[in-house]
Every structure is written in C-alpha cells, then in structure tokens.
Amino acid sequence: MSKSSKYNGDDIWKNNVEKINSELFTLTYGSVVAQLCRDFNNNYHEVNNQLDKMGYNIGLRLIEEFLAKTGVRRCQTFRETSEIISKIGFKIFLNIVPTIENWSSDNKTCSLILPEPNPLTEFVELPITTDSKISKELWYSQILCGVLRGALQMVQLDVDVNFVKDVLRGDDRTEIRLKLNKVLKDEIPAGED
Ligand code: MYR
Fold first, then answer.
1. Beta strands in the chain (DSSP E)
2. Given this structure, which CATH class describes domain 9-183?
3. Does residue 72 have its Cβ closer than 6 Å to ligand 1?
4. Is the CB of 75 under 6 A from ligand 1?
5. DSSP states along 62-86
6. Which of 44, 69, 89, 143 is the most exposed, having the fewest neighbouring CB atoms within 10 Å of its CB?
7. CB of 129 within 8 A of CB of 135?
8. pLDDT of 84-98, one tens digit each?
C-alpha cells in the first residue's frame, strides 16, 4: 500500500495506539471507581464526593494546559463559555462534543448532553435494578463535574455542576447540569485534599 494511501501503516498504528490509550484510560478510571467503592464500603455518596474532589484538583491544573494549548481568550457570556467547554474542552480531553441544551431564561444554567459512548463508561455496566443502591446512588462519571468546577474556578467562574441523568443508570441520556453562581473577583482558589 502506498504511503499516500488513506490507510497507510502510520495511520493504522496511530489509530490503534489511540484506541489502546483510550481503552486503558477507561479501564484505569474504572479501577479508581472500584477502589473508592471498596475504600468507602459502598457508600456511594462518599464515592461521588471523592470523585468530585479528585476532578476539582485536576481541573485546577488542567485549565493552564487548556489555555496554553488553545489560546482561548476571556469569554464575554456564559453561553460563550459553555460553547468553549463543549466544542474545545471536551473535544481536546475526551474527544467528544456534548450538545448544549435546556438554557434557563437568565442564561446561567444549561445542560451538557454527552454523546454515547461516554469514554469513561465504554466497557462499564452497573447492576441496574429498580432497587439497586449502586444504580440509584453512584454517579460513575462524577469526576467530570469536579474537573469543570475546578477549571472554571480558575477563570473566576463559580459554578455548580452535577449529573442529572446517566445512561449507565438506565436513563435515556447522560446529562450534566451546569449553573453559573457568580463571577469571582481575582482570588486564589483553595485546593481540596
Ligand atoms: C474565559 O472566559 O476565561 C475562558 C473560559 C474557558 C473555560 C474552558 C474550560 C475548559 C474545561 C475543560 C474541561 C474538559 C472536561 C473533560
């Protein structure tokens, strides 16, 4: 096959490496969640908290890489910020582009709908039954909420972020609710240990 062909060896190698990396990433995240479930004795509220804190600490640092890589400038509106989060942030770090829906009339709250497969849950199944504690209480991808909260805090946006639906729980879609509380003055955020 010629080097210029669409299916040359480099592409096959690159695609396989990317695929393996993303599988490794998904499996690694899965083992973190499983370990937290063990450490916190299946107290899924606490597991959600821990995932959120881990994500927050990641977000505090990740924003620097994001701004350096993209050269994104200060957004003028929260609508603009949410477009950047979805089309550039999620694209760069997870290779997905959530759709943005369900804006509140004050333009401060919206939903990010994650396309399937969610890269964090690709090989994951939870025991879903109507009374299963895990499917009612665990927000498996909660780390994403923390990442967004931490990253946005670094650009002076105080937000609440939480999952309201997850396909993994048997919902029709995976939905993150994002709410702008206030625009902060320049403050150094405290890390959460
Ligand atoms: C500004 O107004 O200063 C620019 C705001 C840009 C915020 C972008 C945050 C990106 C967070 C990426 C999260 C990725 C989650 C997987």
1. 99-101, 109-114, 157-165, 174-183
2. alpha beta
3. yes
4. yes
5. HHHHHHHHH-PPPPSSHHHHHHHII
6. 69
7. yes
8. 999 999 999 999 999
